[in-house]
Write a structure and sequence with these properties.
mainly alpha; MetI-like fold; 2 domains
Length: 661
């Protein structure tokens, strides 16, 4: 018995008080379980225990009407910024698909983009990347019976504005934060909240102050995409070795020369990785920004999904995925590309790829005068396979209707509904006490107070019950992701070939925009909690798989050799040596998986889950900025609470293993 208590004392420390609160549940009043003024049914106009929504809406109203220095309001300032973005966006739209009508200049022909993608792919990595780039533009041009090419150009024109601006803002913030500690300390929690906040919550604020349309979508995309660039810039600049800085000082560099000639070039790999992340974040917003009027593939995909035209939606989804994979591979190759020494000889020998690009441009212009196929494939020669896709989807759903329907009903009746009821019955005071005890055990008083305040905010906001439904969706998905990702990671870590295969699969799946995962979910399980969890699991299993592989493959060799010398079998080595040592990394993987799941829960609300995501959609419909922002903060605080606790647990395990002091 003593051995049992010593082994499980950490769990008992937090579970016994929680169990006591649960046991006295019949003796407690109703407000002990559900906070006053909580959202229980239709969730109309509520205030919560603390009227956060009213305060935010009052602040928004003030900003809309108050004149700064008696000259202009904050809304007028944001609308002027919006006009500036709109003018830049008009320019990129003219380049890609509108053309410059006043000058009589046509947009870039597809054959030119096709050729330039091939040349640039050859320059960055070789024929495989060139083939991918060429195939992407060929697909967009050929499968354009329903206007996919024009929609793709609208999407690329928006990315051509949002990605550079996001990268520039992130770079500037990162430089200042790396040089000024106070700015870094103030910026870091803002970055945490921005990356935890659901997209839809600040879409409402953007729509209120910047208007709607493509310009508003670009601004929302910039807000979403710059934080990872900022983080990676800070990481890169702080990671510059002291020896390199001292060499710059010895060379007589000024402060600005040190920054631009020494530190930024030394942090190039991190900064280029940040640009890759910016591009992928911009693509992740393709569909989401369509809720406030951004044109392009996302808007059309959203319309097809709403009408359950799955064949057409799938065809558009393939275009989105093709663009995402192409831009991801190209940006990764840019990050890894090292400067090359120029060859001797004439211009064509010294700059073969620039010369090839010039020839492609000139050849494309000439071809546009010779044949209309060069500028745009005529509609009668383009194709669409949406009809065949609809037939295939219908066949799959009808042939699998009985087993999938039985599985869905079993999951709903015997697993998901009881779990959901259990989560909804959690007393809010008990949950606050529970996370506080865990925080105190892992990180003492400061962590305990922080996580308790996060949970109290959710309870006081009025959306406690909906937050518990969101938590139920996330926890069920997290368990399933762990049951899939950890065994898969163990299997993949056995040798280099398996690792490469699984990592390539993870890389491919991670490039898919989030809304794409709703297509197979709705196709197989219709609209239900099962379909939502299915989409969440597919999207969120990637981090736990990656971190499991990383943890198991980065165990020091001398420990492996010592276990072999001790006569451990392969099974003993896995469970007695490798898994305990990899456990801190697996915890970090669970943390990232949870954040991915929270993000996807908000997307899954589009197919009917009754949780915080539904309330965000309702706030977006009625342009209720206060409600959208507060619900977004509730989601963010769920993520931040789990993040603080799991990171603290991981650090505790690392200290026990001697990895950190």
């Amino acid at each position: 018995m003593n051995r049992f208590f010593s082994k499980y004392k950490n769990f008992l420390f937090v579970l016994v008080p929680f169990g006591f609160l649960w046991a006295i549940k019949p003796l407690m009043p109703s407000w002990f379980f559900i906070p006053p003024k909580s959202c229980l049914g239709g969730c109309g106009s509520i205030e919560g225990m603390i009227p956060f929504v009213g305060w935010i809406n009052a602040g928004i109203k003030f900003l809309k009407s108050y004149e700064i220095f008696g000259l202009f309001t904050f809304r007028e300032l944001t609308r002027s910024i919006s006009k500036g973005i709109d003018s830049v966006l008009n320019f990129t739209e003219a380049i890609f698909y509108n053309g410059f009508e006043n000058l009589g200049i046509e947009p870039l022909p597809w054959i030119m983009l096709f050729g330039l993608a091939i040349v640039y792919g050859l320059y960055l990595r070789g024929w495989r990347l060139a083939l991918l780039g060429g195939a992407c533009f060929f697909y967009l041009a050929l499968f354009s019976l329903r206007g996919i090419y024009e929609l793709s150009m609208e999407t690329l024109s928006a990315i051509a504005v949002s990605a550079p601006l996001s990268a520039l803002i992130g770079l500037l913030f990162g430089i200042v934060a790396a040089k000024r500690k106070r700015f870094h300390d103030a910026l870091w929690p803002v970055l945490n909240v921005l990356q935890s906040l659901p997209h839809f919550s600040y879409l409402i604020i953007v729509a209120i102050f910047f208007g709607v349309g493509s310009k508003a979508g670009v601004i929302a995309t910039i807000i979403f995409a710059f934080p990872p660039m900022t983080r990676l810039t800070i990481l890169g600049l702080k990671g510059v070795s002291q020896e390199i800085k001292e060499a710059g000082i010895m060379a007589g560099c000024s402060k600005w020369q040190m920054l631009f000639k020494v530190e930024i070039p030394s942090a190039r790999s991190s900064i280029m990785l940040g640009i890759n992340q910016v591009i992928m974040q911009c693509l992740a917003m393709v569909v989401i920004a369509s809720f406030i009027g951004q044109k392009g593939l996302g808007h059309d995909l959203l319309a097809r999904l709403q009408n359950l035209r799955l064949g057409q939606a799938f065809e558009i989804g393939v275009a989105v995925v093709f663009i995402a994979i192409t831009l991801d591979r190209f940006s990764q190759a840019m990050a890894l590309k090292e400067p090359e020494r120029l060859k001797e000889g004439n211009f064509f020998k010294r700059h073969p790829f620039i010369s090839s690009s010039i020839l492609v441009i000139l050849g494309s212009v000439i071809l546009t005068f010779i044949t209309p196929f060069a500028s745009r494939i005529p509609t009668e020669y383009t194709i669409s396979i949406s009809g065949q896709l609809n037939s295939m989807i219908k066949f799959i759903t009808t042939s699998l209707f009985n087993p999938l329907g039985a599985f869905r009903d079993f999951m709903l009746v015997y697993i998901l509904m009881p779990t959901k009821a259990a989560f909804q019955s959690l007393p809010w005071i008990a949950v606050i006490a529970f996370v506080g005890l865990i925080g105190y055990r892992l990180g003492k008083l400061r962590l305990a107070i922080t996580v308790m305040l996060f949970v109290f905010f959710i309870a006081a906001s009025g959306y406690w019950v909906r937050a518990l439904i969101t938590l139920y969706m996330v926890c069920v998905s997290l368990v399933i992701c762990a049951l899939i990702g950890i065994p898969l990671g163990i299997w993949a870590s056995k040798n280099d070939k398996r690792t490469k295969i699984v990592q390539n699969i993870c890389d491919t799946f991670q490039t898919f925009p989030s809304f794409i995962y709703l297509l197979p979910a709705v196709m197989l399980f219709q609209i239900s909690d099962v379909s939502a969890i299915f989409a969440i699991v597919i999207y969120s299993s990637i981090p736990i798989t990656r971190y499991t592989i990383f943890g198991l493959r980065n165990i020091p060799n001398h420990i492996i050799e010592a276990s072999i010398t001790s006569g451990c079998t392969e099974r003993q080595m896995l469970w007695k040596v490798k898994m305990p040592l990899a456990f801190p990394e697996i915890l970090l993987g669970l943390n990232q998986t949870l954040m991915f799941a929270l993000f996807m829960v908000m997307i899954a609300g589009f197919i009917g889950t009754v949780d915080l995501s539904q309330e965000i959609f309702r706030a977006l419909t009625f342009a209720d900025g206060g409600k959208g922002l507060i619900i977004g903060l509730c989601v963010a605080f769920i993520g931040l609470t789990a993040d603080r606790l799991l990171v603290a647990w991981s650090d505790m395990q690392k200290k026990k293993l001697g990895f950190i002091s």
